[in-house]
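Running this now, will post back.
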Amino acid sequence: MSFKHEAIYNLYPNVTHIVENLDDTFIALDINEEEVTINMDDVNTKAIELQTADENEQDTLKTNKVSAYRKNGLTDEEILAIDSSLEEYL
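Update: finished.
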């Protein structure tokens, strides 16, 4: 699910599904297939918040992973051999 979809569901709890058009516009529908009016400025702001939170969570997970490997006595080279995506966290 995209962050914009997640933002719409967060901001408009009565939305049950979303149609994304080819031109990147969204139609939000409720349980009765009625269109729910959404404010795209609010959606974009919330999507950025959600993306930032997700990135911060991923950073924390990777930092914790490096910490665990180091507590087990692994060198940076060994850590990279296991998971090369951790290079910027070493």
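The chain is about 55% helix and 15% strand. More later if anyone needs it.
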